[in-house]
Design brief:
Bound molecules: calcium ion
Radius of gyration: 24 Å
CATH topology of the largest domain: Tachylectin-2, Chain A
Strand content: 35-45%
Number of domains: 2
CATH superfamily of the largest domain: Glycosyl hydrolase domain, family 43
Largest sheet: 7 strands, antiparallel
Number of helices: 2
Structural class: mainly beta
Helix content: under 10%
CATH class of the largest domain: Mainly Beta
CATH architecture of the largest domain: 5 Propeller
Distance between the termini: 39 Å
Length: about 475
């Protein structure tokens, strides 16, 4: 012990002198943990269909506020750890403001989703949960104003618009729809029109604006979860009914189950979903986290647990994720021991609105592309028009595959992938010059190399995660 201590004393000052920047860099933490997917998404609806997890969500516009959104893409996973998407599942909705698509509900030998497009809920249908979805029969086109062809005629006194549809089919086959401002109604069997005689506004214990409703049934109890507030002050409260999906609802004493936790650095847990693993009593709560402010939200998942009497326990929110829900592939990843990049964006300091003591700093070092965390990323500096990143595997390795999850994948990327045995002579081994909308971008490899280098030709100059096999 004494020898080790003596060595550290003599070595450390020298190291500090020579590596001020490097040591400073090593202290950088990732305050955004392990988000569900490597992108900014909100309003997630997650479900398992035939052994595959599907996540439909709002793709955030990266600092654009509510003026815009990303296109409709569906993230899929076999294990709940590795997620992917390719292209658009609702082609005619690309370019619209596309939010909160809800789950894909199976009925009438088809799948229905209910996205909010330009502020109105529309029913859309497809033969497969992968799409392509199109507007349901009787709905002609997207509108900038309310028309009877949109899904719901809301009683909202502030206007006919309603957002955030959540559809639930009861055991007897009767479908229901829940939406913004605590509205609920029976949906007709066509899964498109609403039984307008059944529209109610659920009388909840907590008042004020509400959106992002979540509805599910467990052990004969119907659960209605509704948001309070918004942004950093988002919360989820709930009520439960042992009678019917439209109530009457009882509201337990401890009815707020998710709220901002400054100590844990989790801000504004908002619009998400609850899902169950079929055949189990395992339930999960997904929520958006508002920590970066504006429409830079990422989605996280934690377990939701119940007491014996059916009440929901306050959810232990963490940013760590829940790990694999199905068995992981035994395929072994190659460890990246070092990395380097053409440039690194300066740190970004993010202060919550309510208490600036709990500010967070996001750093963008290239090593954040190799930390198995979807909340951290490498970003090149602004104005870097020839960005690249190198992964150093430590020694010569036989390589099978590269998977790169770029930042803002829904806008598309083009890139060149190269390999090297010595870090001096580079040869191409993958990539594509045409812009493709997908994540991750996969290249099959069959060579020995110590280094891989990606040169980004088009798209945002950043990488959430780069996995090499
Ligand atoms: Ca990362």
């Amino acid at each position: 012990m004494k020898i080790v201590n003596a060595l550290m004393v003599s070595v450390f000052p020298l190291f500090t002198l020579l590596n001020v920047n490097g040591q400073h860099e090593a202290k950088r933490q990732n305050p955004f943990g392990n988000a569900l997917v490597p992108d900014m998404i909100a309003d997630a609806s997650i479900q398992e269909i035939n052994g595959t997890f599907y996540c439909y969500a709002t793709t955030d516009g990266y600092d654009q506020g509510l003026k815009t959104s990303g296109p409709p893409v569906v993230w899929k996973s076999n294990d709940f750890v590795h997620w992917r998407f390719s292209g658009f599942y609702f082609p005619s909705a690309v370019g619209q403001k596309y939010w909160a698509p809800s789950k894909a509900v199976e009925a009438n030998n088809a799948y229905y989703i209910y996205p909010t497009v330009n502020g109105f809920m529309y029913p859309a249908v497809a033969n497969s949960p992968d799409g392509p979805f199109k507007l349901a029969k009787g709905v002609d086109s997207f509108s900038k104003t309310f028309t009877p062809a949109t899904l719901l005629q809301s009683r909202d006194p502030k206007g006919p618009a309603g957002i955030d549809a959540e559809v639930f089919i009861n055991d007897d086959g009767q479908p229901y729809v829940f939406w913004q401002r605590r509205f609920a109604a029976r949906l007709n069997q066509d899964m498109v029109t609403v039984d307008t005689t059944s529209i109610i506004q659920i009388p909840t214990k907590r008042q004020g604006y509400s959106e992002g409703p979540i509805f599910f049934k467990r052990k004969g109890i119907y659960y209605y979860l509704y948001t309070l507030g918004g942004d950093e002050r988002y919360q989820y409260a709930y009520g439960m009914s042992r009678t019917s999906p439209l109530g009457p609802f009882e509201f337990p004493d401890t009815d707020i189950i998710a709220t901002t936790n400054y100590q844990q650095q989790i801000f504004g847990p908002g619009h998400g979903c609850v899902f169950n693993l079929p055949g189990t009593d395992d339930y999960y709560f997904a929520y958006l986290e508002y920590g970066r402010g504006s429409t830079n939200r990422q989605t996280y998942v934690n377990r939701i647990e119940f007491n014996e009497d059916g009440t929901i326990r306050p959810i232990n929110l963490t940013l760590n994720g829940v790990g694999a829900l199905h068995s992981l592939s035994p395929e072994k990843e190659i460890k990246v021991v070092n990395s380097n990049a053409s440039s690194v964006r300066p740190d970004m300091i993010i202060k919550p609105n309510q208490d600036s003591l709990f500010k967070r700093t996001e750093s963008f070092s290239s090593r954040f592309a190799f930390d198995n965390a979807n909340g951290s990323r490498w970003m090149a500096a602004a104005g870097d028009s020839a960005s690249w990143m190198i992964a150093d595997l430590g020694n010569l390795q036989q390589l099978k595959r590269s998977e790169i999850a770029f930042v803002r994948p829904t806008a598309g990327h083009a890139y060149i992938l190269e390999y090297s045995v010595n870090g001096k002579i580079w040869k191409p081994c993958g990539g594509h010059e045409d812009v493709m909308v997908k994540s991750p971008h996969t290249d099959l490899l069959n060579m020995k190399a110590r280094y891989l280098r990606v040169k980004i030709l088009s798209g945002i100059n950043g990488i959430w995660e780069w996995h090499i096999y």
